[in-house]
Amino acid sequence: MTKQESFIQEFKDHVREGLTSYPKYLSSKYIYDDRGDELFQQIMNLPEYYLTNAEYNIIDKYKKDISSKFEVNGGFDLIELGAGDGKKTKLLLEQLHKDQVEFTYIPIDISKHSIDELTKSLKKKWPEMDVQGEQGLYFNVLKDLARYNKRPKLILVLGSNIGNLKHPEAIDFLNQIRELMSPQDSLFMGFDQKKDPIVIQNAYADKTGVTQEFNRNLLHRLNKEMSADFPVNDFDHWESYDPETGTAKSFLLATEPCKVHIKDLDLKVEFKKWETIHTEVSQKYDDEVVDWLASEAGLEISSIYEDDQKLFKNYTFTS
Ligand code: AVJ
């Protein structure tokens, strides 16, 4: 089986599992095809979606500090998991370039398109910068890198991507990273913070409905890729944030009863009026929870950075 074929098989198994369970669910990781990537880009430009600007502000404010920590002899490797368009990372790259720090930038992303575009724009801006983009799943690529690179590493995971994981999965994720870290390496990671629930609610249920389209993209994919017949407009986006646990959850909510046939799975699924499909978790954190996750994974917090509006934090960890 090729990589592509096993991904499709995994996707199909997941859909069967999730839509025959009670309550129904689907994973947000399947939102991201080309259309999903584009909708997420639009989300990052929404006034309500504060996360991107907050993290941009943090990196801008502390880039000198971060750069100076890595002025090591013999250079270092800057590895980014889920690089996307690299807008925030470019701030740090610019600083490292200015400070004449020796480094190789290794952006890793599941999207080949993102990696190609990012590499092209970096080559144009800084032709002499050593950029070695890799397409692939985080861990496969990361494992290869740990084998080949003996220089100190700074691993970046921006955007609070970890928030899509429930705590046990997040610990597992951190643990897998820790296993690839040497004592001189650091992990720099974004964690969106607990805050006024209204601010979070609005960030995930924007007025213009981009987030609704983003969420509905899952159903569009099933219609296209598995010959399903979801009446997509009869599923509304619903967001609920629980300030006690810090968990924001996205749902698709059936506003009419319907019967859906997913031909390629030979599966028929019924929805009652007001039945839900749980599609995404966007976990919010505080220092105590981050410290707990880190220690469960054998990591230690070494610095904490916060934006001016106190919405978001980046932490550095060592093993
Ligand atoms: C890409 C996981 C960071 O949860 O904030 C944005 C995805 N979902 N709006 C997030 C998302 C709805 C985003 N992450």
Automatic annotation (TrEMBL):
One of its GO terms (biological process) is methylation. It comes from the Bacteria. Residues 11-317 form the Histidine-specific methyltransferase SAM-dependent domain. It holds the Pfam family Methyltransf_33. Gene3D superfamilies: Vaccinia Virus protein VP39. InterPro entries: EgtD_Methyltrsf_superfamily, MeTrfase_dom, MeTrfase_EgtD-like, SAM-dependent_MTases_sf. Keywords: Methyltransferase, Transferase. GO terms for molecular function: methyltransferase activity. The keyword Ribosomal protein does not apply. This is L-histidine N(Alpha)-methyltransferase. The lineage of its organism: Bacteria, Pseudomonadati, Bacteroidota, Flavobacteriia, Flavobacteriales.
